[in-house]
Design a protein that fits this description.
The chain is 42% helix and 23% strand. By secondary structure, the chain is α+β, with helices and mostly antiparallel strands.
Length: 341
């Protein structure tokens, strides 16, 4: 159960006295309430990598210093579930460490980018839909109160996550605002336990890997490479197009050293209102394009006053050509209303 509560010596003592929300909040904040909570977070692969750290050092340190149990779901999924369990004070320590780690990542990534405004830290909780009503409150009163008192942005998704009875609750702001916000959300969760059975959200594995060899496309299924005629046609079409080697080439071509084509970079400009169809829901489409083309694709952050976004494609001329073909196919299907490729 995503938000479970179990108390120390006497379970009845907590609920029979039914402390007021304010009393409960101070007890939870001070860690004086002997409650064990389980909170689930939804993270992308890159975020999970940051939490795990090299050889698992970061997550090991977080477990030791917070005293909370931190489990990360298995699998080669684009999304993973991070489950944090422990007494309230241990959970808040673990949350603080995660929030500050993400802020550190943002600071580091900004040193390599031209962006001037610092994006907020963002965490996504996974909450049973039956508890979301209490979190929103009558006419949105509770969520408004949480936003105003913590300074964090809180959004409850309208739809349930696929094949589950859970919704994503997105919190963004400074690490301190996020920690205060999580404390208040925990109070609401303790006061309004889930109703009925909860079907937990389980992220689906990433789409099947694709490899190109000898002009043929294959999908990997277990230990076998299965020929894929549709992708082969796409690959051959892309190979027939003129390679974009001269454009912004970063590595000079050395005659005679042609064992592997030099990596080059190509830039595209895409209107803001079409960028979503290239990225896809939670990055699914852009990940597919990266996987199928073998190119590195970076999408620049939106800049104020600009109606366009820069896309940088890096790889061999064949990689770049295929990536461009796939991006153009996505744009064409969006503009002509043909739907997804």
């Amino acid at each position: 159960m995503p938000f479970s509560s179990a108390t120390g010596p006497s379970k009845e003592s907590l609920w029979s006295s039914r402390p007021t929300c304010r009393e409960m909040e101070s007890k939870v904040s001070e860690g004086g309430l002997n409650v064990t909570l389980t909170i689930r977070l939804l993270m992308h692969g890159k975020e999970v990598g940051s939490i795990i750290g090299k050889k698992g050092e970061t997550v090991k340190k977080m477990r030791e210093e917070s005293g909370a149990r931190i489990n990360i779901s298995e699998g080669n999924c684009p999304e993973r579930i991070v489950t944090i369990t422990g007494p309230t004070d241990a959970i808040f320590k673990a949350f603080a460490m995660i929030a500050y780690k993400f802020e550190e990542d943002i600071t580091n990534s900004m040193s390599n980018s031209t962006a001037t405004s610092k994006p907020p830290v963002t965490l996504r909780l996974v909450v049973p839909a039956s508890q979301c009503g209490s979190l929103i409150g009558k006419g949105g009163s509770k969520i408004k109160e949480i936003r105003e008192s913590t300074g964090a942005q809180v959004q409850v998704a309208g739809d349930m996550l696929p094949n589950s009875t859970e919704r994503a609750v997105t919190i963004s702001g400074t690490p301190d605002a996020i920690i205060q916000c999580v404390k208040q959300i925990c109070v609401v969760m303790l006061e309004s336990p889930p109703k009925g059975a909860t079907i937990p959200y389980r992220p689906k594995p990433a789409s099947t890997p694709v490899i190109f060899a000898g002009g043929q496309a294959y999908t990997i299924q277990g230990q076998y490479a299965i020929p894929h005629p549709d992708l082969t046609k796409l690959h051959q079409l892309a190979m027939q197009q003129t390679p974009f080697t001269p454009l912004g080439q970063t590595t000079p071509a050395f005659p005679g050293l042609d064992a592997s084509p030099p990596a080059s970079t190509h830039e595209l400009t895409i209107p803001n209102d079409l960028i979503g169809c290239i990225i896809g829901r939670q990055g699914t489409k852009i990940n597919e394009i990266r996987q199928m083309s073998g190119a590195q694709i970076k999408i620049a952050n939106a800049t104020e006053g600009s109606s366009e976004r820069q896309i940088t494609i890096t790889g061999t001329p064949a990689n770049i050509s295929l990536a461009q073909y796939l991006i153009n196919a996505r744009l064409t299907s969006e503009v002509t209303g043909m739907g997804a490729l």
